[in-house]
């Protein structure tokens, strides 16, 4: 009998030990795995148990949590003007988030270490935990103007505007857009079905083109080439002359670089100001050849290209391209070849020129406050780089004003305001009409806004002859007027 009891006792001890081992494995080793398992309904319901903080732009609520009548889901996410701000707010779905909803998730759901004091006070007073509120830098008037103007073009594209002096993002519009409410419901089946439809849509409505897509910048990049050329010799200025042949033979090839449409560029010997006004290709190809790849690459890096930037969402890297032959340098110097830029990067270039050569780090989150309105964190503008000297910036500004007043961008003119800008037409490489670009800042003498506009494959009724001056400049004008209250 004693042997039987001993065996039973040993068996119980072994089973207890195995049970404890299993408990420890579940709680310590596999805790994170099990917590993140999509079949864990506790997490699913918990996502909707806390009142997430609001996302606010210019005093306007653009995302908030509202109470529901459901016993399982206490709160649901709501997005006023959903499509207008979709790529700013992002969505909050049963298992994932995007944009600000993702980057600021631990603040919005109240779990951030920065909110420990607030949670402790709430625990002591018995109040439910609430998330922090996120105030973004978006100017609602600028956002609406950009959205309406781009939508009226009938094309895909992007608009991004910055405060040149701080780097604050004033507008961030990407079309086509989507309704984040459809991806933020509590019914998984409906949400996942809708997400699959959007993800498979060839027009890519989920893509934030302002920061997530790179394009050949076309002639807007000529301001970078001009910057490098002026920095290389401080005696050069707007009235310096340069050769501008109708065709520029490319070294070690049997092809030539023509001007747009095969046109002549003045008399063949033009000022730098005239070359930028008319956006001639050959003088800029010639500048690139004279400077060489290394100097061109160095100048692009001074404008922030190649930097890992987060706003706080990650930004795709812009790039001048790998070192090839001289012909490739000439083509890259007019914004083609392997030269690829995000709209945000092009806006940063315009902003840097307008800000006396200093490029500020772009940011989208202005302030964080807790549920009681107390400040948790506030943005502090940071310099990213000194792209060019103030003297060079002044020369570039003068020439870019002339582009708007006398050159290819007259449709960007704003009455009573000196506008600086540069148009661009970039070959897309897929037999579609070229992309239309425009970058700008205003007022030129003391900029309050800098921006970049891209209209993919030009605009309706313009087709292959689309240029930034025809299609992108009027969109920019609408945004400039909104920011400057004109």
Summarize the structure.
This protein is an alpha+beta fold and 486 residues long. The protein has helices at 2-29, 31-35, 41-46, 82-89, 99-103, 105-108, 116-125, 140-152, 188-200, 209-212, 222-232, 272-278, 281-291, 293-302, 326-332, 343-354, 390-406, 468-471, 473-484, and strands at 55-57, 60-67, 75-78, 133-136, 157-162, 169-175, 241-243, 247-249, 256-258, 269-271, 358-360, 365-369, 375-378, 383-386, 420-426, 435-442, 449-455.
Strand and helix layout:
Elements (H helix, E strand, L loop, with lengths): L1 H28 L1 H5 L5 H6 L8 E3 L2 E8 L7 E4 L3 H8 L9 H5 L1 H4 L7 H10 L7 E4 L3 H13 L4 E6 L6 E7 L12 H13 L8 H4 L9 H11 L8 E3 L3 E3 L6 E3 L10 E3 H7 L2 H11 L1 H10 L23 H7 L10 H12 L3 E3 L4 E5 L5 E4 L4 E4 L3 H17 L13 E7 L8 E8 L6 E7 L12 H4 L1 H12 L2
Helix pairs in contact: 8-19, 11-13, 11-14, 11-17, 12-17, 13-15
Q: End-to-end distance, in Å?
A: 99 Å
Instruction: Tell me the radius of gyration.
Output: 27 Å
Helix content: 25-40%
- Contiguous helical run count: 19
Overall mean pLDDT:
90
What percent strand?
Answer: 15-25%
- CATH level 3 topology of the domain at 212-364 and 381-484: Beta-lactamase
- What does the main sheet amount to? 6 strands, mixed
Question: How would you name the CATH homologous superfamily of the domain at 212-364 and 381-484?
Answer: DD-peptidase/beta-lactamase superfamily
CATH architecture level-2 label of the domain at 212-364 and 381-484: 3-Layer(aba) Sandwich
Strand order within the widest sheet?
A: 3-2-1-4-12-13
> What would the principal axes of the Cα set say about the shape?
elongated
Count the strands? 17
Low-confidence residue ranges: none
CATH top-level class of the domain at 212-364 and 381-484: Alpha Beta
Q: Structural class, please?
A: alpha+beta
């Amino acid at each position: 009998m004693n042997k039987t009891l001993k065996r039973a006792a040993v068996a119980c001890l072994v089973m207890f030990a195995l049970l404890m081992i299993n408990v420890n494995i579940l709680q310590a080793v596999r805790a994170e795995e099990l917590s993140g398992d999509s079949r864990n309904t506790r997490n699913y319901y918990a996502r909707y148990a806390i009142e997430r903080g609001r996302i606010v732009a210019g005093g306007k609520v653009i995302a908030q949590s509202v109470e529901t009548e459901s016993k399982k889901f206490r709160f649901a996410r709501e997005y006023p003007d959903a499509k207008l701000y979709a790529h700013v707010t992002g969505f909050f779905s049963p298992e994932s988030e995007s944009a600000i909803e993702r980057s600021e998730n631990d603040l919005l759901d109240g779990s951030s270490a920065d909110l420990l004091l607030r949670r402790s006070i709430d625990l002591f007073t018995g109040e439910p935990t609430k998330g922090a509120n996120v105030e973004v830098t978006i100017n609602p008037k600028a956002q609406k103007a950009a959205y309406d103007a781009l939508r009226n073009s009938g094309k895909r594209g992007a608009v991004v505007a910055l405060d040149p002096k701080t780097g604050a993002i004033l507008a961030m519009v990407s079309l086509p857009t989507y309704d984040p409410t459809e991806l933020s419901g509590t019914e998984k089946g409906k949400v996942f079905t809708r997400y699959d439809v959007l993800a498979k849509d060839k027009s890519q409505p989920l893509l934030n083109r302002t920061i997530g897509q790179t394009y050949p910048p076309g002639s807007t990049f000529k301001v970078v080439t001009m910057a490098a050329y002026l920095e290389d010799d401080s005696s050069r200025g707007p009235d310096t002359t340069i050769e501008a042949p109708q065709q520029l033979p490319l070294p070690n090839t049997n092809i030539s670089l023509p001007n747009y449409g095969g046109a002549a560029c003045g008399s063949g010997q033009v000022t730098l100001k005239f070359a930028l006004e008319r956006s001639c290709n050959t003088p800029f190809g010639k500048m690139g050849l004279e400077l060489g790849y290394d100097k061109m690459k160095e100048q692009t890096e001074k404008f922030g290209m190649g930097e890992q930037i987060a706003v706080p969402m990650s930004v795709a890297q812009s790039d001048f391209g790998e070192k090839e032959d001289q012909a490739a340098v000439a083509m890259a110097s007019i914004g083609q070849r392997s030269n690829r830029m995000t709209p945000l990067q092009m806006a940063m270039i315009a902003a840097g020129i307008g800000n006396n050569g200093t490029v500020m780090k772009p940011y989208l989150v202005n302030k964080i406050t807790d549920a009681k309105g107390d400040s948790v964190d506030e943005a502090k503008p940071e310099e990213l780089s000194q792209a060019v000297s103030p003297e060079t910036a002044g020369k570039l500004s003068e020439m870019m004003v002339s582009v708007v007043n006398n050159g290819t961008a007259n449709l960007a003119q704003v009455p009573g305001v000196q506008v600086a800008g540069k148009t661009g037409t970039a070959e897309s490489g897929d037999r579609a009409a070229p992309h239309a670009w425009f970058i700008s800042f205003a007022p030129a003498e003391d900029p309050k806004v800098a921006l970049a506009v891209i209209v993919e494959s030009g605009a309706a009724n313009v087709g292959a002859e689309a240029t930034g001056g025809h299609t992108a400049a009027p969109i920019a004008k609408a945004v400039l007027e909104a920011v400057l209250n004109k």
